[in-house]
Specification:
The protein has two domains: 77 residues; 237 residues, von Willebrand factor, type A domain (Rossmann fold), CATH 3.40.50.410. It has eight helices and 14 strands.
């Protein structure tokens, strides 16, 4: 009897050991790799209508001209994490009511599981509500948005803060919607720093341009208030701790970027400063959308209700492709990305570049 028990125990131990070895072997074959590149992709027809029903086999992804193997494919409808950033600078005083009305319309279009954060930016960045699905809280936050006291607009800082600090740790579909006139005066983050971040991120940016009621050149008294510093960013969760500076390409009252003026329609040299600034602002917002696979809207030319519905539809039905680069590259290396779909008459919007991050 004892011998039988001994053999039985031995069999159990061997089986357990075999099971453990099997688990260990299985785990060793699982690829744990932080170099996975996720590409949100929006696919529409020529009338901007979402194209459903695509599968993994319909997509091809190229990095620097070399086709990559699509390892991850997701087209399930999923909740969104959205930051709604409202420009409350002095230059938008005449259109803030329209901006708030449009923001409230967007909140109504959100699903019950979608989460949104309300942020305002002027001479500071202020978080009026955290990420929440409570629409009453969001509407109350929009109501509390007020015009800033100082003449400054930290647009680039606001975009950087939203993408890097507020959305970076969130999973799933992420978007930043900007309602702004596109002017930037006083940001600490440079254009190159911002665009470098966007090429590393999977947040999609949707700028909605509002033409200011005031001329840029008339919006700033002389001398410019507190040119030396104007305090620190981060009144409630902003970038924080860095003194504002005014680079030569965006100091108020100066025609920004003299070289770019030559490329503007009509020559640009003798055009009013406000017209030049507006065109540069629009070009900047268009670049934000292009680099992230989003879409640029202009309030005067678009039905905002329809625009918001398009954004919601795109975000909830976004295709997400993931691949592991065929070759490793040092952190900070920028690569070209191209996504193709094997159907005629299709418009594909996805980020065109990405940067490798430090492991």
């Amino acid at each position: 009897m004892r011998k039988i028990r001994g053999w039985f125990v031995l069999i159990l131990l061997v089986a357990a050991g075999s099971s453990v070895r099997s688990q260990v072997d299985t785990n060793e074959t699982i690829r744990i790799d932080t170099s996975l590149i996720n590409i949100p992709v929006n696919v529409s027809d020529r009338d901007n209508r979402y194209v459903p029903g695509l599968t993994k086999s319909n997509f091809r992804v190229f990095q620097d001209g070399v086709e990559q193997s699509v390892e991850i494919f997701n087209n399930d409808s999923a909740p969104m994490n959205v930051i709604l950033a409202l420009d409350t600078s002095r230059s938008t005083a005449g259109v803030l009511g329209k901006i708030k009305k449009a923001a409230r319309k967007f909140i109504k279009d959100l699903g019950p599981e979608d989460r949104c954060m309300i942020v305002t930016f002027d001479n500071d960045i202020e978080i009026l509500s955290g990420l929440t699905s409570n629409k009453k809280d969001l509407e109350s936050a929009i109501k509390n948005a007020t015009i800033g006291a100082q003449f400054s607009t930290v647009l680039r800082d606001a975009v950087y803060d939203a993408v890097q600090r507020q959305l970076r740790g969130e999973k799933g579909r992420k978007a930043l919607i900007l309602l702004t006139d596109g002017a930037d005066f006083g940001s600490s983050v440079s254009r190159s720093q911002l665009f470098d971040l966007l090429t590393e991120s999977d947040t999609v940016v949707y700028p909605i341009f509002y033409e200011s009621a005031m001329r840029v050149r008339d919006s700033f008294p002389r001398p410019f208030p507190d040119q030396a510093g104007m305090g620190r960013l981060g009144r409630r969760g902003g970038i924080g701790g860095r003194q504002r500076r005014f680079p030569s390409d965006n100091f108020p009252g100066r025609n920004p970027n003299r070289q770019n003026r030559r490329n503007l329609p009509g020559g640009g040299v003798n055009r009013p400063n406000s017209e030049i600034q507006q065109q540069l602002s629009i070009a900047f917002l268009e670049e934000l959308s292009e680099k992230t696979g989003g879409r640029f809207f202009r309030e005067q030319k678009a039905d905002l209700g329809d625009a918001f519905q398009q954004i919601v539809d795109e975000m909830k039905r976004q295709y997400v492709l993931g691949f592991y680069p065929l070759s490793d590259s040092p952190a900070g290396t920028e690569h070209k990305i191209k996504v193709q779909v094997d159907r005629p008459g299709i418009v594909v919007r996805a980020k065109s570049r990405y940067r490798t991050q430090a492991q």
